[in-house]
Design brief:
It comes from Candidatus Thiocaldithrix dubininis. The protein is mainly β and 161 residues long. It has 1 helix and 7 strands, in the order αβββββββ. The strands form 2 sheets. It has a 4-stranded antiparallel beta sheet, with no helix packed on it. It is elongated. 10% of the residues are buried.
Length: 161
């Protein structure tokens, strides 16, 4: 006989977590309430660009829209629904389908004319280059040129008398 741990409050704890997530999501300006799912995003900054990596497995690249307007980057798209009836052997489906929508407010230092995007193995990578005027540059400190050998030479002349 197997002994199972009885947790009478587990369903209430789960409800509390779901309510907390819902409230937290309402204050998040990077998602939209019309999204069916929200892809995970990693943001990295280098010296020359910001790089966003967005997890979009199963999303056709033609179904992804990326727009930049008023320093707001918008990424939206959809993952199509597959037929998952029990006749095909499906007993449970956990992958989310439908539309997604993410927005990011960007700094003024982005060069919006040179933004690029590519996908590889279900990861969308968006490169947001920084404008040249705001990229850090190294300034060399110049020292005065070393002085020439300033030794005074004296020659003695002896007069023969």
């Amino acid at each position: 006989m197997k002994i199972a741990r009885y947790e009478p409050w587990s369903i209430l704890n789960q409800l509390q977590r779901e309510m907390d997530n819902l409230i937290r999501r309402e204050g998040d300006t990077t998602t939209s309430p019309v999204s069916d799912w929200t892809p995970a995003v990693d943001i990295r900054e280098t010296d020359s660009a910001y790089i966003l990596r967005v997890d979009v497995p199963g999303v056709n690249p033609q179904d992804i829209d990326i727009n930049m307007e008023n320093n707001v980057l918008t990424i939206s798209g959809k993952r199509d629904t597959e037929t998952t009836d029990e006749k095909n052997g499906y007993k449970r489906v956990e992958r989310v389908t439908g539309t997604f929508h993410r927005r990011f407010t960007l700094p003024d230092s982005i060069d919006s004319d040179h933004i690029t995007a590519k996908t590889d193995n279900g990861v969308l990578e968006i490169t947001l280059p920084k404008q040249a005027k705001v990229m850090p540059r190294k300034i060399a400190v110049q020292a005065p040129a070393p002085a020439a050998n300033n030794t005074i030479s004296t020659t003695s002349t002896s007069a023969a008398a």
